[in-house]
Each structure stands twice: as C-alpha cells, then as structure tokens.
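Residues determine shape. We examine one folded chain.
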Amino acid sequence: QVQLAESGGGLVQAGGSLRLACAASGRTFSSYPVEWFRQAPRKDREFVARISGSGSSIYYADSVKGRFTISRDNAKNTVYLQMNSLKPEDTAVYYCRTDVYWGQGTQVTVSS
C-alpha cells in the first residue's frame, strides 16, 4: 500500500508561481515513476508531467512544457511540481500518481 498526499495548491494571479508537493508513505518510493495529472471542471483528467524513479527521465505535456518543472527528493519521499508563468487555463485539481495509487488532489486556481 502507498499513501500519497498532495499539498501546495492555492489561488494565484496569472503569471504567478506555485510549487506542489506529493508526499508518499507506505513503501519504497524511489523505485517507481510518479506522474502529475490535473482535472479542470467539466473536463477529463489529463497528464501533466512524469518523472522516473531515479529522476533521470522526465516528460511533460506540451501545454506545460517550459513553464512547469517536475523533480523528486527520494530521501524525503516527495515529488515536486514547480509551476511558473501560470495561466487561467491551468486552473484544476492536481493529482499525483504512482503505480495504481492516487492522491486526493490539491486545488490550483489562477485568476486573470
């Protein structure tokens, strides 16, 4: 079993920044890739970013490339999503996932 807990969401103006964290507990974290997804109101959940267990392999959705940075600290069992130059269309609930486990999500709201 793995428990994931996201944090760091909030309300920010367009152009601002937020850093989300996904803290894991329950088993060895470093062996597994972790992904961030988001779901806006009335839209399907979409992929945002992925990082391998070692952190050496990273992928981004085109919509966030160049603005978001995913990283991980395996000593802290935590994956981060640094979000810069935020846009109103980034407004969503952000979730992290590893293997088959999901966190509860954290709300990000970007005002124009």
